[in-house]
Design goal:
It is a single chain. The radius of gyration is 20 Å and the shape is elongated. Strand 1, helix 2 and strand 2 form a beta-alpha-beta unit. It is an alpha/beta fold and 292 residues long. Helices cover 36% and strands 18% of the residues.
Protein backbone atom coordinates (compact mmCIF):
# COMPACT_ATOMS: atom_id res chain seq x y z
CA UNK A 1 0.00 0.00 0.00
CA UNK A 2 1.30 3.47 -0.86
CA UNK A 3 1.00 5.32 2.44
CA UNK A 4 2.09 8.63 0.90
CA UNK A 5 -0.64 8.55 -1.72
CA UNK A 6 -3.47 7.21 0.44
CA UNK A 7 -4.35 7.37 4.15
CA UNK A 8 -3.79 4.17 6.03
CA UNK A 9 -6.70 1.77 6.07
CA UNK A 10 -6.77 1.86 9.87
CA UNK A 11 -7.33 5.59 9.76
CA UNK A 12 -10.23 5.08 7.38
CA UNK A 13 -11.81 2.50 9.65
CA UNK A 14 -11.78 5.02 12.48
CA UNK A 15 -14.01 7.21 10.33
CA UNK A 16 -16.76 4.62 10.74
CA UNK A 17 -17.40 5.89 14.28
CA UNK A 18 -17.30 9.59 13.36
CA UNK A 19 -20.46 11.57 12.51
CA UNK A 20 -20.92 11.78 8.75
CA UNK A 21 -21.25 15.09 6.96
CA UNK A 22 -23.32 15.30 3.78
CA UNK A 23 -20.18 15.01 1.64
CA UNK A 24 -19.13 11.89 3.55
CA UNK A 25 -22.07 9.77 2.41
CA UNK A 26 -19.84 8.37 -0.36
CA UNK A 27 -17.26 5.60 0.07
CA UNK A 28 -14.81 4.09 -2.40
CA UNK A 29 -13.86 0.40 -2.57
CA UNK A 30 -10.66 -0.48 -4.45
CA UNK A 31 -9.90 -3.93 -5.84
CA UNK A 32 -6.28 -3.30 -4.81
CA UNK A 33 -4.51 -0.24 -3.32
CA UNK A 34 -2.01 0.40 -6.11
CA UNK A 35 -1.35 0.59 -9.85
CA UNK A 36 -4.27 1.46 -12.11
CA UNK A 37 -6.71 1.44 -9.19
CA UNK A 38 -4.66 4.07 -7.40
CA UNK A 39 -4.55 6.23 -10.54
CA UNK A 40 -8.32 6.05 -10.82
CA UNK A 41 -8.86 6.75 -7.11
CA UNK A 42 -6.49 9.73 -7.13
CA UNK A 43 -8.40 11.22 -10.07
CA UNK A 44 -11.70 10.47 -8.32
CA UNK A 45 -10.58 12.27 -5.17
CA UNK A 46 -9.40 15.31 -7.13
CA UNK A 47 -12.63 15.51 -9.14
CA UNK A 48 -14.88 14.89 -6.12
CA UNK A 49 -13.24 17.75 -4.27
CA UNK A 50 -13.21 16.39 -0.71
CA UNK A 51 -11.79 13.52 1.33
CA UNK A 52 -13.68 10.27 0.79
CA UNK A 53 -13.19 7.11 2.90
CA UNK A 54 -11.79 4.20 0.92
CA UNK A 55 -11.51 0.46 1.54
CA UNK A 56 -9.13 -2.15 0.16
CA UNK A 57 -11.11 -5.17 -1.09
CA UNK A 58 -7.92 -7.21 -1.46
CA UNK A 59 -7.35 -7.12 2.32
CA UNK A 60 -10.82 -7.98 3.58
CA UNK A 61 -14.49 -7.49 2.82
CA UNK A 62 -15.18 -3.85 3.73
CA UNK A 63 -17.58 -2.88 6.48
CA UNK A 64 -19.10 0.41 5.41
CA UNK A 65 -19.73 3.23 7.89
CA UNK A 66 -23.40 3.85 8.68
CA UNK A 67 -25.05 6.52 6.56
CA UNK A 68 -23.24 5.72 3.31
CA UNK A 69 -25.63 6.24 0.38
CA UNK A 70 -23.28 5.71 -2.59
CA UNK A 71 -20.38 3.32 -3.04
CA UNK A 72 -17.91 3.82 -5.87
CA UNK A 73 -16.16 0.59 -6.81
CA UNK A 74 -12.90 0.53 -8.77
CA UNK A 75 -12.11 -2.78 -10.44
CA UNK A 76 -13.92 -6.07 -11.01
CA UNK A 77 -13.25 -7.50 -7.56
CA UNK A 78 -14.68 -4.46 -5.79
CA UNK A 79 -17.74 -4.47 -8.06
CA UNK A 80 -18.41 -8.15 -7.39
CA UNK A 81 -18.89 -7.71 -3.63
CA UNK A 82 -22.31 -7.61 -1.98
CA UNK A 83 -23.45 -4.18 -0.81
CA UNK A 84 -26.39 -3.12 1.38
CA UNK A 85 -29.82 -2.79 -0.20
CA UNK A 86 -30.72 0.74 -1.19
CA UNK A 87 -27.11 1.89 -1.58
CA UNK A 88 -26.24 3.35 -4.96
CA UNK A 89 -23.28 1.82 -6.79
CA UNK A 90 -21.00 3.47 -9.32
CA UNK A 91 -18.76 0.85 -10.92
CA UNK A 92 -15.56 2.01 -12.62
CA UNK A 93 -12.92 -0.12 -14.37
CA UNK A 94 -15.19 -3.18 -14.12
CA UNK A 95 -15.54 -4.55 -17.68
CA UNK A 96 -16.88 -7.87 -16.42
CA UNK A 97 -19.98 -6.26 -14.87
CA UNK A 98 -22.96 -4.38 -16.23
CA UNK A 99 -25.45 -2.15 -14.44
CA UNK A 100 -28.53 -4.00 -13.17
CA UNK A 101 -31.56 -3.14 -11.01
CA UNK A 102 -30.86 -3.11 -7.28
CA UNK A 103 -33.31 -4.00 -4.51
CA UNK A 104 -34.39 -1.30 -2.14
CA UNK A 105 -34.24 1.48 -4.70
CA UNK A 106 -30.47 1.76 -5.09
CA UNK A 107 -29.09 2.56 -8.55
CA UNK A 108 -26.16 0.79 -10.21
CA UNK A 109 -24.27 2.96 -12.67
CA UNK A 110 -21.42 1.67 -14.80
CA UNK A 111 -18.65 3.91 -16.10
CA UNK A 112 -17.89 2.58 -19.56
CA UNK A 113 -14.34 1.56 -20.40
CA UNK A 114 -15.23 1.87 -24.08
CA UNK A 115 -15.97 5.22 -25.77
CA UNK A 116 -19.38 5.85 -27.26
CA UNK A 117 -19.46 3.66 -30.37
CA UNK A 118 -20.00 6.61 -32.70
CA UNK A 119 -16.83 8.20 -31.33
CA UNK A 120 -14.95 4.90 -31.42
CA UNK A 121 -15.78 4.18 -35.06
CA UNK A 122 -15.01 7.75 -36.11
CA UNK A 123 -11.55 7.45 -34.54
CA UNK A 124 -10.92 4.03 -36.08
CA UNK A 125 -11.73 5.48 -39.50
CA UNK A 126 -9.37 8.35 -38.78
CA UNK A 127 -6.67 5.77 -38.07
CA UNK A 128 -7.66 3.63 -41.08
CA UNK A 129 -9.64 5.73 -43.61
CA UNK A 130 -10.36 2.66 -45.79
CA UNK A 131 -12.08 0.81 -42.91
CA UNK A 132 -15.43 -0.52 -44.14
CA UNK A 133 -15.61 -3.99 -42.52
CA UNK A 134 -14.76 -4.54 -38.86
CA UNK A 135 -14.70 -7.86 -37.00
CA UNK A 136 -15.39 -7.76 -33.25
CA UNK A 137 -14.54 -10.59 -30.85
CA UNK A 138 -16.07 -10.96 -27.39
CA UNK A 139 -16.71 -13.52 -24.64
CA UNK A 140 -18.08 -12.01 -21.40
CA UNK A 141 -21.88 -11.91 -20.98
CA UNK A 142 -21.50 -8.30 -19.86
CA UNK A 143 -20.54 -7.37 -23.43
CA UNK A 144 -23.65 -8.91 -24.97
CA UNK A 145 -25.80 -5.74 -24.54
CA UNK A 146 -23.23 -3.80 -26.57
CA UNK A 147 -23.46 -5.95 -29.71
CA UNK A 148 -26.67 -4.46 -31.09
CA UNK A 149 -25.78 -0.79 -30.42
CA UNK A 150 -22.33 -1.26 -31.95
CA UNK A 151 -23.80 -2.77 -35.12
CA UNK A 152 -26.29 0.10 -35.31
CA UNK A 153 -23.47 2.61 -34.93
CA UNK A 154 -21.55 0.76 -37.64
CA UNK A 155 -24.48 1.02 -40.04
CA UNK A 156 -24.71 4.76 -39.40
CA UNK A 157 -20.96 5.15 -39.94
CA UNK A 158 -20.84 3.01 -43.07
CA UNK A 159 -18.86 0.24 -41.36
CA UNK A 160 -20.15 -3.33 -41.47
CA UNK A 161 -19.72 -4.90 -38.04
CA UNK A 162 -19.39 -8.69 -37.80
CA UNK A 163 -19.26 -10.10 -34.26
CA UNK A 164 -17.75 -13.37 -33.08
CA UNK A 165 -18.50 -14.79 -29.65
CA UNK A 166 -15.52 -16.77 -28.37
CA UNK A 167 -16.44 -19.61 -26.01
CA UNK A 168 -12.95 -21.09 -25.68
CA UNK A 169 -9.48 -20.05 -26.81
CA UNK A 170 -9.08 -23.20 -28.93
CA UNK A 171 -11.72 -21.80 -31.29
CA UNK A 172 -9.82 -18.58 -31.96
CA UNK A 173 -7.60 -19.64 -34.89
CA UNK A 174 -10.60 -20.91 -36.88
CA UNK A 175 -12.66 -17.81 -36.07
CA UNK A 176 -9.82 -15.53 -37.11
CA UNK A 177 -9.40 -17.35 -40.41
CA UNK A 178 -13.04 -16.57 -41.17
CA UNK A 179 -12.18 -12.88 -41.21
CA UNK A 180 -9.55 -13.19 -43.97
CA UNK A 181 -10.88 -11.33 -46.98
CA UNK A 182 -14.02 -10.44 -45.04
CA UNK A 183 -12.73 -7.82 -42.60
CA UNK A 184 -10.42 -4.83 -43.01
CA UNK A 185 -9.49 -4.94 -39.31
CA UNK A 186 -10.65 -6.39 -36.00
CA UNK A 187 -11.37 -4.82 -32.62
CA UNK A 188 -11.11 -6.26 -29.12
CA UNK A 189 -13.15 -4.85 -26.21
CA UNK A 190 -11.80 -4.80 -22.64
CA UNK A 191 -13.26 -8.26 -22.09
CA UNK A 192 -11.68 -10.13 -19.13
CA UNK A 193 -12.91 -13.50 -20.41
CA UNK A 194 -11.50 -12.90 -23.89
CA UNK A 195 -8.13 -11.30 -23.20
CA UNK A 196 -5.35 -13.40 -21.67
CA UNK A 197 -1.64 -13.73 -22.46
CA UNK A 198 -2.47 -16.80 -24.54
CA UNK A 199 -5.28 -15.26 -26.59
CA UNK A 200 -3.50 -11.94 -26.99
CA UNK A 201 -0.55 -13.77 -28.55
CA UNK A 202 -2.93 -15.54 -30.97
CA UNK A 203 -4.58 -12.26 -31.94
CA UNK A 204 -1.26 -10.46 -32.36
CA UNK A 205 0.39 -13.17 -34.45
CA UNK A 206 -2.66 -13.35 -36.73
CA UNK A 207 -2.75 -9.57 -37.13
CA UNK A 208 0.92 -9.07 -37.90
CA UNK A 209 1.25 -12.28 -39.91
CA UNK A 210 -1.65 -11.41 -42.21
CA UNK A 211 -1.40 -7.63 -42.25
CA UNK A 212 -4.85 -7.21 -40.65
CA UNK A 213 -4.86 -4.28 -38.18
CA UNK A 214 -5.82 -5.13 -34.61
CA UNK A 215 -7.44 -2.39 -32.53
CA UNK A 216 -7.97 -2.40 -28.77
CA UNK A 217 -9.01 -0.19 -25.87
CA UNK A 218 -5.92 -0.22 -23.64
CA UNK A 219 -2.39 1.08 -23.88
CA UNK A 220 -1.01 -2.26 -22.70
CA UNK A 221 -2.48 -4.13 -25.66
CA UNK A 222 -0.94 -1.64 -28.06
CA UNK A 223 2.41 -2.10 -26.37
CA UNK A 224 1.97 -5.84 -26.92
CA UNK A 225 1.23 -5.55 -30.64
CA UNK A 226 -2.11 -3.91 -31.46
CA UNK A 227 -1.86 -1.17 -34.07
CA UNK A 228 -3.82 1.31 -31.98
CA UNK A 229 -6.26 1.72 -29.13
CA UNK A 230 -9.10 4.15 -28.62
CA UNK A 231 -9.98 3.92 -24.96
CA UNK A 232 -10.56 5.49 -21.59
CA UNK A 233 -7.66 6.25 -19.26
CA UNK A 234 -7.72 5.06 -15.66
CA UNK A 235 -7.70 8.67 -14.48
CA UNK A 236 -10.65 9.57 -16.70
CA UNK A 237 -12.57 6.56 -15.34
CA UNK A 238 -12.04 7.85 -11.80
CA UNK A 239 -12.98 11.41 -12.67
CA UNK A 240 -16.15 10.26 -14.43
CA UNK A 241 -17.08 8.13 -11.40
CA UNK A 242 -16.76 11.23 -9.23
CA UNK A 243 -19.11 13.13 -11.52
CA UNK A 244 -21.63 10.29 -11.34
CA UNK A 245 -21.43 10.14 -7.52
CA UNK A 246 -22.04 13.89 -7.26
CA UNK A 247 -24.94 13.67 -9.70
CA UNK A 248 -26.59 10.91 -7.64
CA UNK A 249 -26.16 12.97 -4.48
CA UNK A 250 -27.82 15.93 -6.22
CA UNK A 251 -30.77 13.76 -7.27
CA UNK A 252 -30.00 14.02 -10.98
CA UNK A 253 -31.16 11.38 -13.43
CA UNK A 254 -28.37 9.23 -14.88
CA UNK A 255 -28.40 6.42 -17.44
CA UNK A 256 -27.23 2.99 -16.33
CA UNK A 257 -24.16 3.38 -18.54
CA UNK A 258 -22.08 6.59 -18.41
CA UNK A 259 -19.52 7.36 -21.12
CA UNK A 260 -16.45 9.40 -20.15
CA UNK A 261 -16.09 12.51 -22.30
CA UNK A 262 -12.34 12.22 -22.90
CA UNK A 263 -10.73 9.44 -24.88
CA UNK A 264 -7.10 8.32 -25.04
CA UNK A 265 -5.42 7.21 -28.27
CA UNK A 266 -2.32 5.01 -28.27
CA UNK A 267 -0.42 4.04 -31.42
CA UNK A 268 2.16 1.39 -32.31
CA UNK A 269 4.31 2.44 -35.26
CA UNK A 270 5.93 -0.98 -35.84
CA UNK A 271 2.62 -2.86 -35.90
CA UNK A 272 1.06 -0.23 -38.14
CA UNK A 273 3.88 -0.58 -40.66
CA UNK A 274 3.43 -4.36 -40.81
CA UNK A 275 -0.30 -3.81 -41.45
CA UNK A 276 0.30 -1.16 -44.14
CA UNK A 277 -1.05 1.69 -42.03
CA UNK A 278 0.39 5.18 -42.05
CA UNK A 279 -0.57 7.52 -39.22
CA UNK A 280 -1.41 11.06 -40.24
CA UNK A 281 0.42 14.01 -38.63
CA UNK A 282 -2.89 15.09 -37.07
CA UNK A 283 -3.36 11.67 -35.47
CA UNK A 284 0.21 11.63 -34.18
CA UNK A 285 -0.36 14.99 -32.50
CA UNK A 286 -3.59 13.76 -30.93
CA UNK A 287 -2.16 10.49 -29.60
CA UNK A 288 -1.32 10.29 -25.91
CA UNK A 289 1.28 7.54 -26.49
CA UNK A 290 3.29 6.30 -29.47
CA UNK A 291 5.21 3.04 -29.29
CA UNK A 292 8.02 2.86 -31.86
Amino acid sequence: MNSKALPRLTAVLLLAAAPLRAADKVAVVLSAPGGAYLQAFSAFQAAYGSEVPYFDASADKPVLPPGITTVVTIGNKAASLDYPEGVNLVNAMAPGFFAKPRPGGGREIKVSMVPDFKVLLAKLRQIQPSLARLAVFWSAPAFSPFVGPMQEAGTAAGVRITTFKVTKSADLPALLRKTLGEADAFWLPPDPLLISPETLLIFTEFSLGNGVPMYATTKGMVRDGACASVGISFAESGATAAGAAKALWAGEQLPDLVYPSRIEITLNASSAKRCNLRFSPELLREAAYLFP
